[in-house]
Amino acid sequence: MRFLLLLLLTSPAFAAPKPIRLTSPDGQLVFTFRLTDTAPTYRIDFGKKPVVDESELSLTFAETGRFGANLTLEKPIFRDLDESYNLLIGKANPVCNHCREVTLPLTERAGNHRKINLIVRAYDDGLAFRYEFPEQPGWTSFTLTDEQTTFRLAGNPTLHTLFRPNFITSHEGIYDTLPLNAVKADTLLDVPTLAEWPQENLFVGITEAALVDYAGLYLTKRNGVLTSRLSPLPNTILPGNTPLGKSGVLVVSTLPHRSPWRVLLIGNRIGALIESNIITSLNEPSKITDTAWIRPGTTTFPWWNGNVTPDTSFAPGNNFDTQKYYIDFCADHHVAYHTVVEYGLHEWYVSDGTNFQPGPHTDAARAVPGLDMKQVCDYGKSRGVGVRIWVHSGALFGRVEAVFAQYEAWGLAGMMVDFMDRDDQEMIRWQEMVLQTAAKHHLHIQWHGIQKPTGLHRTYPNEFTREGVLNYENNKWNDLITPDHDLTIPFTRGLAGPTDYHLGGFRAALPGKFRAQYTRPLMLGTRCHQLAMYVVLENYLPMLADYPDAYRGQPGFDWLQKLPPTWNETRVPAADINHYITTARRSGTDWFVGTLTNHEARTVSIPLDFLPAGTFTADLYGDGPATGQDPNALVQETRTVSRGDVLTVTLAAGGGHVMRLRPTNKR
Questions:
Q1: How far is CA 189 from CA 207, 380, 497, 542, in A?
Q2: Cα gap 87→68, rounded to integer Å
Q3: Which of 453, 446, 409, 403 has its CA nearest to residue 428?
């Protein structure tokens, strides 16, 4: 008997396989996979320092229980990826996708003999993995009730995160900074969440990529370890009259299927995480073949300013004359789009709801009396300005094709879709359907009241931007959006991609003189702080949300009119989390550079080593001596610079600085 037991314990079927190692192309990042009898585990080292200690992976299904124990590992499949692809809109173009990949085929030893592949990619600036459910005999569909992806972060890093009370959320809130061991168990953390080891100069951003037909990712702390939580399906009934929301069902699918990528952006400087292109590289190439109609650019958004119009002969409202006033401003000042939203708190479309919530007879394909949308679109086209609209998502449910067909017939260019406030699998499917249908009708999409981006603007380049962040719309009713809050966003929510922030307020007020007001809102932070936000935040449909006369003749507006709609390269030459950041973005041969500070005045040294050889003309806009009394004051200068220079810029409290660098032989 003892001999039989010894034989069983040492037989190949029970022997743990050797660890599998995957390294990044530069060799600095090492992923180590081990298979134990209880669960697959992994660890990550970066620059010979532990980042993620041994962490378990498993999945639980309603039909067949937990997948994790008693697995065998078939032969790993390694490959190198070294390719280049183009982004129609993005922070870089072209993009180099260079990584090493391993596919780890995992099969249950007994029972259902289910097979799931773990696919891992190691980049120089991070690591990603996903679960793949291949087609296989005896397993045709699944109901996922838990995904136990764990991140046992080494030591006790500082976290920068957004806590959420539940899964019904617009993802708008104030970010917290606290040590991992101070996070309460079972609280919900949004992603991206940033982990920082200040003494090690080490940074890790946790998020996801390619969220398609799956539930959105959150984190929680269980037994001291960050663990995945997925947004549950609501109000759907399973056989046996079991509501999904109550049973904890997360994903329902047939095979084959794939999870989104679980992404760890990793670097020795925080700027490397912001510069990374991993998230778009993990998405599929564009599914839109005809892209000539896709045109990113700036847009008005009159709701923010209170639909201000001048004292003229026309009556303001949901009518042609009000739209013409804004369209003329766009045409005269290189603004690509005008957005028709509402007037007097009533939507531009027929609605019997209250507070913008659709009623039973709401019709988003029919304008209110007195507003001829085709007339507005035709006028915009005559002046070279695209016309777009705001619409509540609830006004589209069940009617997307019919409504979008009408929008195309009118000649609309695109829209903001608002108030999803969910990211369960059902809602994620709906969002992809909206993008697909919008592309069919040549419409771009701007999302509000939605989760973070996951790189889908590579697959559907008609997705221009997403909100999912507490932003300047709040200046209409509170004072939460401070320069300090602004400085948290590039290092947290901004890591995921395009961030819509209601930019463009041109009435900066000193802290003691700020007050919330619904019409003509004020801003905390200087005029130059506001200008720099356009560069620091990635966004392909930035707003000029103030009213036309707020911009005409104002210092700094000329600089905004020169901003390109998309970028070829992004660099972060200087940054200190929550204190200051300098972001440089290139379009063609020109560079646009924005620097922000929090509530503290400071000087920031900006090395220009991102420039190529040669001399450049630098047009500089900065806070000046008068900014302490008038935060809208700025100083302008022009100088000649080159690659070896280091510019030192002086920022007022809540201040900013911007520049445009162009080759000296270019006008």
A1: 11, 43, 18, 27
A2: 38
A3: 453
Q: Tell me, what's the pLDDT at 242?
A: 47
Residues written for the chain? 667
CA distance 218 to 229: 5
Q: How far is CA 440 from CA 225, 243, 461, in A?
A: 44, 35, 13
* Radius of gyration over every alpha carbon of the chain, rounded to an integer in angstroms: 26
**Distance between CA atoms of residues 496 and 205, nearest Å:** 9
Stated pTM of the model: 0.95
Task: Quote the percentage of the chain above a pLDDT of 70.
Answer: 96
The answer to whether 588 and 568 are in contact (CB under 8 A) is yes
Structure tokens at 164: 């959420």
CA pair distance 391, 419, nearest whole angstrom:
9
Residue corresponding to tokens 């799956």: 214
Bond before 165 cis per omega within 30 degrees: no
Cis peptide before 612 (omega within 30 of 0): no
And the tokens for 126?
């991070």
Q: Which of 569, 23, 607, 651 is nearest to 274 (CA)?
A: 569
**Alpha carbon distance 324, 626 (integer Å):** 37
- Rounded to whole angstroms, the Cα distance separating 654 from 159 reads 24
pLDDT digits (tens, 9 = 90+) for 443-470: 999 999 999 999 999 999 999 999 999 9
Residues 129, 193: contact at Cβ < 8 Å? no
Distance CA 59, CA 147 (A): 5
- Of 398 and 242, the structure prediction assigns the larger pLDDT to 398
Bin 361: left if φ > 0, else alpha if -120 < ψ < 50, else beta: alpha
Helix (H, G, I), strand (E, B) or coil at 259: coil
Q: Tell me which H or E stretch contains 414.
A: strand 414-418
Output the CA torsion sign for 421, 489, 299, 553.
Answer: positive
Question: Rounded to a whole number, what is the largest CA-CA distance in the chain?
Answer: 101
